[in-house]
Amino acid sequence: MSFRRIRAIARKEFHHILRDRATLILVLFTPTVLLLLMAYALTVDLQHVPLAVLDYDRSPASRAFVEQITAGEDLDLYAQVNSPGELEAMLMRGEIKAALILHPQFAEDLHAARGIPLQVIVDGTEPESGGFAVEQIGRRAEEFVTRALAGRLQTLGLPAGALQPIDLRVRTWYNPGLDPQNDLIPGLVSIILGFPALSVALTLAHEREHGTMEQLMATPVGRAELLLGKMLPYILVGLFNAIFIPLLAILWFDTPFNGSFLLFFLLSAVFLFSILGIGLIVGVFMRTQAAALALSFLLIFFPGFFMTGVFFPIASMPEIVRMEALSLPGTHYAIITRSIFLTGVGLEVLWPYAVMMAGLGFVFVGIAALFFKKRLG
């Protein structure tokens, strides 16, 4: 294997990237745009969910309860209605996402310390809003009842602590505010940094589609040298994104970065080598750019979204899906990015994932090299 020939192929590919504006945008600017769009689109905090209330009791206690339920910015009191028919009409028109019904004995049951029946109706066409409304109503109802009964106990000379047999104290590590962006953005890095794999697949398909691959193969360049030469420019461009994307996450989204930037950079290079190996396989087997594009989304980006643990916990997946997830470089890289960003661990913890990515990369590149010459004609 000649490094001089690999460098010549890499130089040719660099010139192609710089000349082809579409390729340049794809590998250099698309990851940044995707991070901005997906970070905002996928971390929307639910607020101002419209709520209607049907209060059959109409007592001071029920009015105080409604005021507490709708305090803040989580639930907005859209209307107080007088009949179930009004609630149904509002739900059908999409004006409200949840409805709360208070029964006639609300105040009586509260003062008697009996169970308080609350009926909540939610719009099932938007389960997120409905589930959020149920969670907020349940939490605030518990706070309201606890405060009301604590006042009664104090009036009777009994300690208010009698209502709190459990002293639960919760402490959250690594992401104290449970900010969803702090978890999501490091995971998104493992998806968007894989875009060079799409480019290398398209460039191989382009070479075959336009007949220039045969010209390259007529030279003394070996198939492994050709494939490595094709990969090298996209690894270097990907490493530029591996510098810029974390800076964007830290400065724009205020995402914590507690680990070593050098370690992140080096492990990103291993990830790029591995994910580009998949791109090489796609480019070897697909003869047209359209087919390469379709297969790239099927093998690289679709699993990246749904099988790498970025959005759905791997532990909750069926066993066969977990096995498939472990064969994806993005699965191991998502663990690495979240660990470096949030927990700040080092190579002594992350080396198994780095070894798995490197092993997968050598396997993928080996498969591409094995079938490259056989599939050329």
Fold topology:
Elements: H1 3-19, H2 21-41, E1 49-55, H3 60-69, E2 75-81, H4 84-93, E3 98-102, H5 106-111, E4 118-122, H6 127-155, H7 180-192, H8 195-209, H9 212-217, H10 223-252, H11 261-285, H12 289-306, H13 319-326, H14 329-343, H15 347-376
Parallel strand pairs: 1-2, 1-3
Antiparallel strand pairs: 3-4
Write a concise keyword list for the protein shown above.
377 residues; alpha/beta; 15 helices
Could you please describe the fold and organization of this structure?
This protein has 377 residues and is an alpha/beta fold. The protein is built from 15 helices and 4 strands. The chain has helices at 3-19, 21-41, 60-69, 84-93, 106-111, 127-155, 180-192, 195-209, 212-217, 223-252, 261-285, 289-306, 319-326, 329-343, 347-376; strands at residues 49-55, 75-81, 98-102, 118-122. It has a 4-stranded mixed β-sheet with strand order 2-1-3-4, sandwiched between helices. Helix 3 links the parallel strand 1 and strand 2.
